[in-house]
């Protein structure tokens, strides 16, 4: 009796310790553990480790949605076990996706007759959408070249050097040459005139970006369209335009309805948009819309019928979750045109608050535009003493994640910091961020610059001063981290830290 009482007491004491016995020994990292563990322990172990991730709400590096209404969270959880591809089994989910495609096509002014339905598909994000759009252009161009008896083995795409990495992926995976229009200091988007100059008989499309990832600026799609119409007339080619509206596709229709960038322009044959950016849905949804049925070659569409009825599909993968499609439908009907307009206007206003706050410090050049994607991209007026990478690094201490990156060629000598304004980045947070950036600058100013450190290290008498030495080494460490990070970014030559 006594023995068993002791045993049960020790059990209680183990369970009442926060780090239960399961958490005391670490699990193997790369091999599946031999034995099972209780669900509570598994939860605790994973939850604890995840606490060390950044806070998504303070992640100002990303366009991707980090907050949705609890009602929508409920719908997402309720559909988490539905495979989207089982269209015959979940016909309502399929119907919701089709409604989304049509709503978005109308938003982009697709030329649809009253009884016509839009041509488009839901994807995992803009990357998949862009692969599909690119494949359609490639196939259409090949078909035309074959019919004309001309070689069709050297397709190319013309873009700005500011394209998102998914275009480079498309080019490499699907063997299309990427011809990039170089940027220059002070001009960080594709120059339409130069783009049209680069177009040749092998160009499958020119890709314009509505909302450059680097500084949020909208490219001039209308000018591109007009110049290309002329070039096509002169040459007899038929070069089309794709608009990568990953971020801007859910902004322009609501706050710049007059701006002509979409299917109102005759050469725009397809458009992609990320539902998970300003479409206001959590990560995992994008859309691609084609102007007409003729713009999507029939031979790319697969008809699958072993799950029931005939299902036309055009995607890169097969199975995927349904939740994001349902969540997109929720946002479209819950917010409506009015709601999206309010959200986008609010983001724009918060962007202005942040931009003006940064301008007031007198330390930054603003390289984003007021009428693009609501973000502020800015660089230090004087980065000889301290760099943008150091500002970024030091802001982490306050919890802010603000990326710094170098611009692509030929503007690679410019480094910028970028803050994306999402729906959940409120006015209060904007004001606090300005405050914390001021504190950061103040702190950086009080530290010796790199040049000063070198001279102090050389001078012998300061070596005796412990305080100076200690401060120096902490700063040196910080500089090493910054240098390593910069090297990493430079080597990749791409803006992998931002999306
Ligand atoms: C984010 C982004 C992409 C990639 O989109 P995902 O939805 O993340 O796959 C492509 N192009 C631009 C301009 C983007 O901003």
Automatic annotation (TrEMBL):
Assigned EC number: 4.1.1.15
Molecular-function GO term, any one: calmodulin binding
Cellular component terms per the entry's GO annotation: cytosol
Enzyme class: lyase
Keywords: Calmodulin-binding, Decarboxylase, Lyase, Pyridoxal phosphate
Residues carrying N6-(pyridoxal phosphate)lysine: 277
InterPro entries, per database record: Glutamate_decarboxylase, PyrdxlP-dep_de-COase, PyrdxlP-dep_Trfase, PyrdxlP-dep_Trfase_major
Catalyzed reactions: L-glutamate + H(+) = 4-aminobutanoate + CO2
GO biological process, one term: L-glutamate catabolic process
Entries under Gene3D superfamilies matching the protein: 3.90.1150.160, 4.10.280.50, Type I PLP-dependent aspartate aminotransferase-like (Major domain)
Cofactor(s), by name: pyridoxal 5'-phosphate
Family recorded in the similarity comment: Belongs to the group II decarboxylase family.
PANTHER family linked: GLUTAMATE DECARBOXYLASE, GLUTAMATE DECARBOXYLASE 1
Protein name, per record: Glutamate decarboxylase
Naturally occurring in which organism (per UniProt): Cucumis sativus
């Amino acid at each position: 009796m006594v023995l068993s009482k002791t045993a049960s007491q020790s059990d209680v004491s183990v369970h009442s310790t926060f780090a239960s016995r399961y958490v005391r020994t670490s699990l193997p990292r790369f091999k599946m553990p031999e034995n099972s563990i209780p669900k509570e322990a598994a939860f605790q172990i994973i939850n604890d480790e995840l606490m060390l991730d950044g806070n998504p709400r303070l992640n100002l590096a990303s366009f991707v949605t980090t907050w949705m209404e609890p009602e929508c969270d409920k719908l997402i959880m309720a559909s988490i076990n539905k495979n989207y591809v089982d269209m015959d089994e979940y016909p309502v989910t399929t119907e919701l996706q089709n409604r989304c495609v049509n709503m978005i096509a109308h938003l982009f002014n697709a030329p649809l007759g009253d009884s016509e339905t839009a041509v488009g598909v839901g994807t995992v994000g803009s990357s998949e959408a862009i692969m599909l759009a690119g494949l359609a252009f490639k196939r259409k161009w090949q078909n035309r070249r074959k019919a004309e008896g001309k070689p069709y083995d050297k397709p190319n795409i013309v873009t700005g050097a500011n394209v998102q990495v998914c275009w480079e992926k498309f080019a490499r995976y699907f063997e299309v040459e990427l011809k990039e229009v170089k940027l220059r200091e002070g001009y960080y988007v594709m120059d339409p005139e130069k783009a049209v100059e680069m177009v040749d008989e092998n160009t499958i499309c020119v890709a314009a970006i509505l909302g450059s990832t680097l500084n949020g600026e909208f490219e001039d799609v209308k000018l591109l369209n007009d110049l290309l119409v002329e070039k096509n007339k002169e040459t007899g080619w038929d070069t089309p335009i794709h608009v990568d509206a990953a971020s801007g596709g859910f902004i322009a229709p609501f706050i710049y309805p007059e701006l002509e960038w979409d299917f109102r322009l005759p050469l725009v044959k397809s458009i992609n948009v990320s539902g998970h950016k300003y479409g206001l849905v959590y990560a995992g949804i994008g859309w691609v819309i084609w102007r007409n049925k003729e713009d999507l070659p029939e031979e790319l569409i697969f008809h699958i019928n072993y799950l029931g009825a005939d299902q036309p599909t055009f995607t890169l993968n097969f199975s995927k979750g349904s939740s994001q499609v349902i969540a997109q439908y929720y946002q479209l009907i819950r917010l409506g045109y009015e709601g999206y307009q309010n959200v986008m206007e609010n983001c724009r206003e918060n962007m202005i608050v942040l931009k003006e706050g940064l301008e007031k410090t007198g330390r930054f050049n603003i390289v984003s535009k007021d009428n693009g994607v609501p973000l502020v991209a800015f660089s230090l007026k004087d980065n000889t003493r301290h760099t943008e990478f150091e500002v970024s690094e030091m802001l982490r201490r306050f919890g802010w994640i603000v990326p710094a990156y170098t611009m692509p060629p030929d503007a690679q000598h410019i480094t910028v910091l970028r803050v994306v304004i999402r729906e959940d980045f409120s006015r209060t947070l904007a004001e606090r961020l300005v405050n914390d950036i001021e504190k950061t600058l103040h702190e950086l100013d009080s530290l010796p610059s790199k040049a000063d450190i070198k001279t102090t290290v050389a001078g012998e008498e300061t070596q005796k001063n412990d305080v100076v030495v200690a401060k120096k080494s902490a700063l040196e460490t910080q500089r090493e981290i910054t240098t390593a990070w910069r090297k990493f970014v430079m080597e990749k030559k791409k803006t992998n830290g931002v999306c």
